[in-house]
Amino acid sequence: MTLAEIESLLDKSFAEARAALAGAANPAALEAARVQFLGQKGFLQAAKKSVGQLASVDDKKKAGKLCNDRDRELQDVYQANLDRLAREARVAELAQRQDITLPGRRSRRGHRHPLSTTCDDILAVLQGLGFEPAEGPEVEHDFYNFEALNIPRDHPARDMQDTFYVDAGGAEVVLRTHTSPVQARAMLAAGKPPLRVSCFGRVYRKDDDPTHSPMFHQIEGLYVDQNVTFADLKGTLQLFAERIFAPGVRVRLRPSFFPFTEPSVEVDISCFACGGTGRGGNVAAEDGRCRLCKATGFIEIMGAGMVDPEVFKACKLDPDHVTGFAFGIGVERVAMLRYGISDIRLLYENDERFLAQFP
Ligand code: PHE
Questions:
Q1: Within 10 Å of residue 78's Cβ, how many Cβ atoms?
Q2: In terms of Cα–Cα distance, which of 327, 216, 219, 203 is closest to 266?
Q3: Which of 117, 159, 297, 325 could form a disulfide with 233 if both were Cys (CB 3.0 to 4.6 A apart)?
Q4: Residue nearest to atom 9 of ligand 1 (CA)
């Protein structure tokens, strides 16, 4: 072949080859076009073979360059189509698996547990009154849980709180039965008044029925200073009750006994369902009696009292110079009252049908 013949061969087949390589609509057609035009028996190979037979070096150069240029161009066209077909195949595959036009799935939004909300609310009210949150261990020394709180060994008051004892190789260790040990720790740590803390956390008692759980949560307030009086306690409880339950609820104090306070009281609030009348309201029975307060007009919500001098002594404070009050409230009980929950166990089962009611 002469140079001119090689050129004409390249020209003649080039357009056809490019159209076939660019236009192949599927991988099989593209492969067939590649074999036909770029393969061993294609026109490019034929042209390349002829180059070697040209007589003039100049012609060889020219023809060689022409062959290489055409070859590179067609390789590019081939590669571009190869990529395009791969992309299309991938898109088709994805489209088969999912309908991308469907609306997206919203992730569901969670919310706080009613117990957490109640706990936060109580702590926030106390914080507003100057009580700083404090925490202590749940596995507690007998000393902090009992002794320091004026509940010596063999004191019948130990029976008030049926205790889980922890086998600690001879050491006297319990699962704390209340959050009061935290107040003992706080007083010992502070060393001197004033002191205003809210102690919160889990507590444990051998109890298990619809209104008692072996584990529950308490929050305790402790205020120690000079000249803290029972009136301060009452005012604090009144504010607390109105903020947590409803404006206008009345507080009633009944004499009671706790080893760590003297005098001690049970704190009742006027029933917010029937307005303290014992009748009517939104949870009245058929005969009109309020079910929440069992027609008494009052609901018991916590224990409180003036810190017993013996507790001050055990906690290295001088009862001749300081006084203080303390109160302890069950968080579950507050949550159950506020939300009208009748079984404490609902608070721990994490049943979504239940939890979804407290957005
Ligand atoms: N610690 C008591 C209890 O768990 C509650 C309480 C705290 C009572 C502080 C009086 C003062 O029963």
A1: 22
A2: 327
A3: 325
A4: 327
Q: Is the CB–ligand 1 distance for residue 114 below 6 Å?
A: no
Closest C-alpha to 342, from 207, 208, 210, 209 = 210
Spatial separation of the C-alpha atoms in residues 347 and 70, rounded to whole Å: 78
pLDDT tens readout for residues 139-159: 999 999 999 999 988 887 777
pTM: 0.70
- The two tokens of residue 92 are 């088709």
| DSSP states along 214-238 | SEEEEEEEEEEETT--HHHHHHHHH
How many helices (DSSP H) and strands (DSSP E) are in the chain?
Answer: 12, 10
- Measure 221 CA to ligand 1 centroid, in angstroms: 9
Amino acid 192: pLDDT: 93
> Could you give phi then psi for residue 38, rounded to 5 degrees?
-105, -5
56 phi/psi in degrees, rounded to 5: -85, 135
How remote is the CA of residue 219 from the centroid of ligand 1, in Å? 9
pLDDT digit string, tens, across residues 245-287: 999 999 999 999 999 999 999 999 999 999 999 999 888 999 9
C-alpha 238/C-alpha 248 separation (Å) is 9
The tens digit of pLDDT for each residue in 28-79 reads 999 999 999 999 999 999 888 889 888 889 989 998 999 999 999 999 999 9
What the block records as the tokens of 317 is 């404070």
Mean pLDDT on 188-203: 95
Instruction: Give the SS3 label for residue 32.
Output: helix
Which of 260, 300, 310, 315 for a ligand 1 pocket mutation test, highest count of atoms within 8 Å of Cβ?
Answer: 260
Map out the domains of the chain as residue ranges. Answer: 3-97, 114-355
Verify whether ligand 1 is closer than 6 Å to residue 327 (CB atom). yes
How many CB atoms within 10 Å of residue 324?
Answer: 27
Average pLDDT, the chain: 93
| Distance in angstroms (rounded) separating the CA atoms of residues 252 and 301 | 10
